[in-house]
Design brief:
One of its GO terms (cellular component) is cytosol. The chain is mostly helical.
């Protein structure tokens, strides 16, 4: 029996391999791939998106490698993973084919098992330019200095970046050739973003070396990624949008940013900063505060939409995170902007209109049923619902769709379909860009058979029995475009009024009778009068009237929660009319909910503040929250003092200088009082702030008068002049209703006639008093020198020697006691300190105060209690002179100082609170007694300040139960509206303190 010959594998023909080039057979022979052992290679080659391109590249690689080709050939025959990666890569991308031929040994990168992580990518690109961590106090963890910064740095970085990009593309494409796992779309985007972060970090390192070659970087610079990079969903070829934040935003910061953009754009991809405030016309680099101010005042709707995807990428990441934390709250309240939804929808139409009509079906990014349709719909829904739902605070489109579906804002089927279509369109976009590493979003024409075939194979399309791969691709493109367009229309243009937080103006459309009933229900005692205010506010023609109508329903509710909504509405009308020409006022109330609500609380609680706010309207802007808390708390005492001093110093005329100082004081009073009413400040903070303002105004006024006097004299002043603070000013514990008790002391300069010097000093002091005490709508500025020797009958100003002689010979016990609170506050500092040294021997006598002096002080206190308490005042609730009130506590502390200051140095202190601390530390009183005195002083001071804030004028007597007492209680920080509870608490605290006073001061 004759056996048939053994069947031998047949080498497939070049046509069956998808090879169309006439030279393909010759090329296979050159590679020695025309034998049976090469069949696995040939079948893998046939699955490459462009087998001819892949084969041509292999020939070029063989020529470049020479004898080293054998190593690659061996790996391709034995390692399916490397074979799939290489054939898919060189059959999909002519750009990467050229890259491999230019450096043929880099094929070995394709043997790597896993993609590198973000830290490894950063290290790899930094290594290309030998970068090391930057040192210096402004260097953050992502700031490096390149060791190679010349022109060659760009080429080195480009090569290293392209190597890493090639590895990702090869792994991403491998499934088209071999049965390798498909790399998820989101994983590709994340890897590309990590690589972009590494590229930006390396570019910044070169910038550092070029801009600051010899010294540490003197600025903090944060690079914030925006757009697709910010959302970690980058394309293979894409602009990388960035925003720069710097502290300070000086020329060095600008040069660093510009150089980084130049290096990055030449080495990697276009680095684009056009999304910054004011676009390309704006400053390249801004400080954090400048960014915040811009977005609060000027930013348009699309800019908040863009901020949705901001992410600190490199540089000073801490500063970048501060930027993000400061601006994201504005993003999530952007939907409150008028016509927000309409603006976003109109913006999408404008973008679509930029695409020529004949290209809209082929445009993956901007056309009909495109990527932008998905992104705009998702972003709109995020912004609308994200204010109330933090689960939507994500950046990626797919992550946001998942969150929207999970929370029920989008149907699960709709979300799944939209996600699938989005990922399909992004896959096509990636494949198109990989072909030549060009930034493109345009599909081949549907009649371009060769282009469509290549794209179908690159996108893993397979025949389905009815259509070839090209037909399947064309059908999928049309199906997904229709689906995206349908879902976009469903989600993007559906009625969203129920979802957008809008103010309801229905109350303003009620009949007068119904409006009166509603106002009464909100707590307005005189609803007819309130209605007249509403009509006046909404009666303005045009935009202001419309905004008022939009705001007032919510403002009325907030006012209704205050202690005096009628007063608050009247005050709001006065403020609105007073700021009628200030276009920002209503805009701030509309756009900043914190400003509107806090303003209503202030106006409905305080009669002290409306006039101040009308005359210092910029304070209202400080009701907003800044990056580190309410702006009302941001100024520092030294900054406030410096502002008052420099403002007054601009004027030669003392009247104008003092007017400027008073104006700045008005602003500061409005700020402090507003923060106090809103419960943002404690009593010591209020007293310290008020005292520092008084001191600054006094200093500025004194300098202005002296400056004018010297100009008039034509020479220097004949004497040094100092102002000594007394009483609560000396203790830096002023309240809203406090006068400034002072002493004026002079010292003739060498060669000056003493009589003339004193006369000049009296003239200056008198002018300061008159200028500061001039009539004004502001709270009074009364400078009181009644505590001077011989009282109001004595000289307004004395020399230092005269004070010394008087106090040594004639000082009465009450005068010695008054000197305990003497402190240098204005004028010549050295003279003021010399005065304090002179009186130290008087107020802190060796051996302590005499028994006779103690008896005299007790006698005077008893007389004050019986004679100075106003007729009809309730001694239990008078905050200053009543039982356990301020006078009781302060006299007790001062008696302790007179007795013990000679042996306890810490009692050389003008502050009541600090002296109490010293008494406790020295064990002069039981800590429980000290705590009772301290609590009473704080309680009485807070109540006294609250009285002034509520009534708008100085007052010391707490009212009886009723609306006024409830208002005082709320401003004083009592947790509910029960004024009687507050009063009981006040009386209990002061009664306990009085028992300590009677034991310690009265000697019982």
């Amino acid at each position: 029996m004759v056996r048939p010959p053994t069947a031998r594998p047949v080498v497939p023909g070049v046509g069956r391999l998808g090879l169309l080039e006439p030279s393909a057979s010759q090329s296979l022979r050159e590679l020695a791939w025309d034998n049976v052992d090469s069949i696995p290679l040939l079948w893998a080659l046939s699955r490459s998106p462009d087998a001819d391109l892949a084969l041509l590249t292999l020939i070029r690689l063989r020529e470049q490698l020479g004898t080293r080709w054998a190593a690659l050939d061996s790996v391709l025959r034995t390692d399916n993973a490397v074979r799939g990666r290489l054939f898919a890569l060189i059959g999909s991308s002519s750009a990467f084919a050229d890259h491999l031929v230019a450096d043929p040994e880099c094929w070995q990168l394709l043997q790597r098992k896993e993609l590198p992580g973000r830290d490894e990518l950063i290290a790899d690109l930094l290594d290309a330019v030998r970068a090391v961590p930057e040192t210096g106090e402004r260097a953050g963890p992502m700031l490096y200095r390149a060791g190679i910064s010349g022109p060659e740095a760009v080429a080195l970085l480009r090569k290293r970046y392209r190597d890493q990009l090639m590895l990702l593309a090869a792994i991403d494409l491998a499934a088209t050739v071999e049965n390798e796992p498909v790399l998820p779309y989101q994983r590709v985007g994340t890897q590309l973003t990590d690589l972009a972060d590494a590229a930006l970090t390396a570019a910044l390192s070169v910038s550092v070396a070029r801009v600051c070659p010899e010294q540490p970087v003197p600025v903090r610079l944060a690079v914030v990624a925006m757009g697709k990079c910010g959302a970690r969903e980058l394309n293979y070829v894409s602009d990388v949008d960035v925003i720069f934040v710097a502290e300070p935003a000086d020329a060095t910061a600008s040069r660093l940013a510009a150089e980084m953009m130049s290096v990055g754009s030449n080495a990697f991809f276009d680095v684009d900063a056009a999304l910054r405030p004011e676009g390309k016309a704006g400053a390249l680099v801004r400080t954090l505060d400048s960014h915040i101010a811009y977005y609060k005042r000027w930013a348009r709707t699309w800019e908040f939409q863009a901020l949705l995807k901001n992410r600190p990428a490199t540089g000073d990441l801490e500063l970048g995170e501060q930027y993000r934390k400061a601006l994201m709250p504005m993003v999530w309240t952007a939907s409150e902007r008028p016509d927000f939804v309409a603006d976003v929808q109109a913006m999408r139409r404008r973008v679509e209109d930029l695409v020529p009509e004949d290209m809209r079906e082929r445009e993956l990014k901007l056309g009909h049923g495109s990527l932008r349709d998905v992104e705009f719909a998702v972003q709109l829904l995020q912004l609308v619902h994200g204010k109330a739902d933090e689960s939507l605070h994500v950046q990626g489109t797919v992550e946001a769709l998942t969150a929207l579906a999970a929370r029920g804002y989008v149907g699960r089927d709709d979300a799944a379909n939209l996600t699938a279509s989005y990922e399909f369109l992004r896959l096509l976009e990636h494949r198109l860009q990989l072909q030549r590493l060009k930034r493109t979003h345009t599909l081949p024409a549907f009649d371009d058979e060769e282009g469509m075939r290549w794209l179908a194979r690159a996108a893993h399309m397979r025949p389905d029995g009815r259509q070839d791969a090209v037909g399947v691709l064309a059908s999928e493109i049309k199906r997904n475009a229709v689906r995206v367009r349908r879902l976009h229309a469903k989600l993007f243009y559906r009625p969203l009024l129920d979802s957008v937080a809008r103010l309801d103006a229905d109350a303003l459309r009620l009949s007068p009778a119904a409006a009166v009933r509603q106002l009464a229900a909100l707590g307005y005692a005189d609803p007819e009068n309130a209605l007249s205010h509403l009509k006046a506010l909404t009666g303005e023609i045009g935009r202001k009237g419309r905004i008022q109508a939009l705001l007032l329903p919510t403002l009325l509710e907030w006012l209704g929660e205050t202690s005096n909504p009628d007063q608050g509405l009247l005050a709001y009308r006065r403020v609105s009319e007073g700021l009628d020409d200030q276009t920002w006022f209503l805009r701030e109330l509309r756009d900043e909910g914190a400003i509107a609500q806090r303003l209503m609380i202030v106006l409905g609680s305080s009669a002290y503040l409306p006039d101040l706010l009308i005359n210092a309207p910029e304070t209202i802007r400080m009701f907003a929250d800044g990056p580190s808390g309410p702006l009302l708390l941001s100024p520092k005492a030294d900054d406030v003092r410096g502002g008052i001093m420099s403002g007054a110093a601009r004027y030669e005329d003392p009247k104008r200088a003092v007017a400027t100082a008073r104006s700045l004081r008005r602003h500061e009073l409005a700020r402090v009082a507003s923060a106090d009413v809103l419960g943002m400040l404690e009593v010591p903070q209020v007293c310290s702030a008020l005292s520092s303002v008084w001191v600054a105004v006094l200093e500025a006024s004194l300098r202005a008068v002296i400056r004018a006097s010297e100009a008039e004299l034509g020479h220097e002043a004949p004497a040094d002049l100092a102002v000594i603070g007394m009483g609560r000013l000396g203790g830096l514990e002023l309240g809203y209703g406090s006068d400034a008790d002072v002493l004026f002391v002079c010292d003739p300069r060498p060669g000056a006639d003493e009589t003339a010097a004193v006369k000049w000093s009296i003239s200056v002091a008198d002018q300061v008093q008159r200028l500061l005490g001039a009539p004004s709508t502001d709270p009074p500025l009364q400078v009181d020198a009644g505590l001077r020797p011989e009282g109001r009958n004595g000289a307004l100003v004395r020399t230092l020697a005269a004070y010394d002689a008087y106090y040594r010979q004639w000082a009465q016990p009450w005068e010695v006691q008054a000197l305990l609170r003497a402190h240098q506050v204005a004028g010549d500092q050295q003279l003021g300190v010399r005065f304090l040294h002179v009186i130290d021997a008087v107020r802190y006598p060796a051996g302590g105060v005499s028994a006779d002096a103690v008896r005299e002080i007790r006698r005077i206190k008893a007389r004050v209690d019986s004679e100075r308490l106003p007729r009809g005042a309730n001694p239990a609730t008078h905050t200053k002179l009543g039982r356990g009130g301020l006078a009781d506590i302060e006299w007790t502390v001062q008696l302790m100082q007179l007795r013990h200051a000679h042996e306890v140095q810490s009692l050389h202190n003008t502050s009541t609170l600090q002296s109490l601390d010293a008494i406790e530390q020295a064990d002069l009183l039981d800590p429980t007694d000290v705590a009772l005195l301290r609590d009473a002083w704080l309680t009485a001071t807070k109540a006294r300040n609250a009285l002034v804030l509520v009534r708008g004028k100085s007052a010391d007597q707490l009212p009886g139960p009723g609306r006024l007492l409830s208002a005082v209680a709320r401003v004083a920080g009592w947790p509910n509206d029960d004024g009687s509870e507050f009063l009981d608490h006040y009386m209990r605290v002061t009664r306990r303190a009085k028992s300590v006073v009677e034991r310690v001061f009265g000697g019982e």
